[in-house]
Amino acid sequence: MQSYPDIEIYLAHCDIARLDAWLRQAIGAGPLSPAGKRQWRTLGHAAAGEVPVLVVEKAADGFASLWLDSPETPWATDTACAREAAARLGCEVRCSLGGWQPGDDPDRFLQVLPDGTEQPIDWPDSGQ
């Protein structure tokens, strides 16, 4: 499976301290630092280079957006990252159903719960 060019997931009830600890463990990221109104940044590291990280609180319907701007993450897909995030952070996580292609329904997402339950959902205008 080819890695996505970047990873973006949405976290319900994002706890910055828990997210910080998980990013440190997963990609060796430094502490998240404020980067504007409701935005946080850090830089992680992977075998092949740096992994810029941006967190935007309340990006969509009360969910925070976590964007890892690199193909060099420990996760090949948004879904793989969402599964680990839900388990490690103990919160609901949403992500795209797969690699987005023109013509795909932009409102279809995968909901991953901390207990491992997953289901496709409609989430209109979530990325706006």
Could you outline the blueprint of secondary structure elements for this entry?
Elements: E1 7-12, H1 16-27, E2 33-34, E3 39-46, E4 49-60, E5 63-68, H2 78-89, E6 93-96, E7 108-112, E8 118-122
Antiparallel strand pairs: 1-5, 1-6, 2-3, 3-4, 4-5, 6-7, 7-8
Region (Disordered): 101-128
Strand order of the largest sheet: 2-3-4-5-1-6-7-8
Give the total of beta strands.
8
Helix/strand order, N-terminal first:
EHEEEEHEEE
Beta-strand content estimate? 35-45%
Number of helices: 2
Terminal CA distance? 29 Å
How can the largest sheet be summarized?
Answer: 8 strands, antiparallel
Structural class: alpha+beta
Q: Helical percent range?
A: 10-25%
| Overall pLDDT confidence | 89
Uncertain regions spanning at least 5 consecutive residues: none
Rg over C-alpha atoms, rounded to the nearest angstrom: 14 Å
Shape: globular
Region (Disordered): 101-128
Task: Describe the protein's architecture and organization.
This protein starts with 6 loop residues before the first strand and ends in a 6-residue tail after the last strand. The protein has an 8-stranded antiparallel beta sheet with strand order 2-3-4-5-1-6-7-8, with helices on one face. 19% of the residues lie in helices and 38% in strands. The model has no long low-confidence stretch (mean pLDDT 89). The chain has 128 residues and is α+β, with helices and mostly antiparallel strands. A hairpin with a 2-residue loop joins strand 3 and strand 4.
